[in-house]
Amino acid sequence: MQKILFVAHCVLNTASKVVMYNSEEMAAEEALRRRFLTCALEKGVQLVQLPCPEFLLYGSRRWGHVSDQFDTPYFRRECRTMLSDILLQLKEYRSNNERFEIIGIIGIDGSPSCGVDYSCVGNWGGNLSDRDDLAEVIASARLTKGSGIMMQELAAMLKEEGIHLPMTGLFAGEPEKVMSLLK
Ligand code: SF4
């Protein structure tokens, strides 16, 4: 039996990530990512890569965002479009349950798109250069319980198909969440 995990795109490809400037936070996430990947490889767990909606829609030079900014009908529809072929693959693996077991879906906690248990919210928007309260507005962003927009859509698509799978996010503050899926 081959075990399969569906993982957020940047679990396998960190080049897709928005440029981050908090090196301590990034180092902690990278350490957990490596620990998780090493364990998955050692255990022979297969990894299917989800799309990165932010890279596809906004590219490599994008600013960081909060989930309020992605909570639009168009962004949600685009997420569904990106996920539709992935969902077909998932259903095919599930249809052959003598060979395959899908053990879950891993997102990136804190991401406005791919967070599962935590996302990021804030009252962001407008022209950056014309604000004199920019530092205050940036500081208003906060981690919040709940999923990012793409993971919300993925969960809804799975529900529509009657599929129940464990979903959690890679989060350096709670490393046991992803590691426990590999047990
Ligand atoms: S949108 Fe998702 S896959 Fe893309 S960089 Fe952010 S967390 Fe990773």
Describe what you observe in this structure.
This protein is α/β, with parallel strands linked by helices. It has one domain. The protein has eight helices and six strands, in the order βααβαααββαβαβα. The strands form two sheets. Strands 2-1-3-6 form a four-stranded parallel beta sheet. The longest helix has 23 residues. The model has no long low-confidence stretch (mean pLDDT 96). Bound molecules: iron/sulfur cluster. The site of iron/sulfur cluster has 13 residues, from α1 and α3. This is DUF523 domain-containing protein.
Key structural traits:
single chain, 183 residues, alpha/beta, four-stranded parallel beta sheet, two-stranded antiparallel sheet, 8 helices, 45% helix, globular, binds iron/sulfur cluster, DUF523 domain-containing protein
Low-confidence stretches: none
- Please report the number of helical segments: 8
Number of domains: 1
Widest β-sheet, arrangement of strands? 2-1-3-6
Instruction: Write down the Rg.
Output: 17 Å
**Beta-strand content estimate:** 15-25%
Q: In which range does the helix fraction lie?
A: 40-55%
Mean pLDDT: 96
* SSE arrangement, N to C: EHHEHHHEEHEHEH
- The gross shape turns out to be globular
Bound ligands, named by name, code or SMILES: iron/sulfur cluster
The end-to-end span amounts to: 15 Å
- Biggest sheet layout: 4 strands, parallel
Oligomeric state of shown chains: single chain
**Alpha-beta classification:** alpha/beta
What's the total number of strands?
6
Protein name: DUF523 domain-containing protein
InterPro entries: TudS-rel
